Amino acid sequence: MGTLLWTLGTPPAWKATIVFFNIISAVVAKRHTVFWNSTNTRLTAGDLSVQLNFNDYLDIHCPHYPNEEAVGHGQPETLALYLVGEESFQGCVETRGAIKRWECNTPFAPYGPVRFSEKIQRFTPFSLGFEFLPGRHYYYSSLPTDEGPPLPCMKLRVTVCCAPNPAPLHLPYLSRVLSISLLYLHIYSYSPTPRLPVSLLRSISVTHTLCGECVGMRMHEAGEMGAN
């Protein structure tokens, strides 16, 4: 009889791997919170800017009031948030190219302010999700809804880190190249009749740069190995 690879109650290896990577992603990712209302002077001044990495979250908290008495004689703030181009961002105006992301229209939500979360990701499986590119700037601004009072221009600039760099040479490939190079050096240097001239062996040099850190491996004067 065969043996079971896994028993009831024990998750298979592939599921454990997925859970592991989800945990790692959650630990690495950060959440950046913005309270979107007219009392946030950074928003109204137009100088609020945040830099996010992929898998980070931008959490937008809508205007909220515990009860109607907290509003006083005025109206509760209600607004819609848009992703806009840089030109529209300067003036907080709705344009044809603006993308409506969320609408804050529940100022008396019973369990606290309504929160909308934007995950910074290159690809999204959701139709309402937004896909971001590294090294780009994205602009959020809001407009009051018809039901709410007039509001000042509130806006936020999001920068997605970082600009793409040329793909580095992978370390496993480098290791194979170095192993082959060293093998040939050993054969040609110690062979009684080396097939390569010593002057050519002296010129062999391998340098590799990986992820911005220089990993230098150089082999100079290889011909002298045979002479010694």
UniProtKB/TrEMBL annotation:
Q: Name one GO molecular function term.
A: ephrin receptor binding
By sequence similarity, the record places it as follows: Belongs to the ephrin family.
| Source taxonomy | Eukaryota, Metazoa, Chordata, Craniata, Vertebrata
Membrane-topology descriptor? Lipid-anchor; GPI-anchor
Keyword Lipid metabolism present in the record's keywords: the answer is no
As for what it does, the entry says: Cell surface GPI-bound ligand for Eph receptors, a family of receptor tyrosine kinases which are crucial for migration, repulsion and adhesion during neuronal, vascular and epithelial development. Binds promiscuously Eph receptors residing on adjacent cells, leading to contact-dependent bidirectional signaling into neighboring cells. May play a role in the interaction between activated B-lymphocytes and dendritic cells in tonsils.
Compartments in which it is found: Cell membrane
- GO cellular component terms listed in the entry, alphabetical order: plasma membrane; side of membrane
What is this protein's record name? Ephrin-A4
Q: Which UniProt keywords apply?
A: Cell membrane, Disulfide bond, Glycoprotein, GPI-anchor, Lipoprotein, Membrane, Signal
Name one process (GO BP) from the record.
axon guidance
Looking up PROSITE patterns in the UniProt record yields:
EPHRIN_RBD_1, EPHRIN_RBD_2
- Report the source organism: Astatotilapia calliptera
Q: By its UniProt entry, which Gene3D superfamilies does this protein fall under?
A: Cupredoxins - blue copper proteins
SUPFAM superfamilies membership: Cupredoxins (SSF49503)
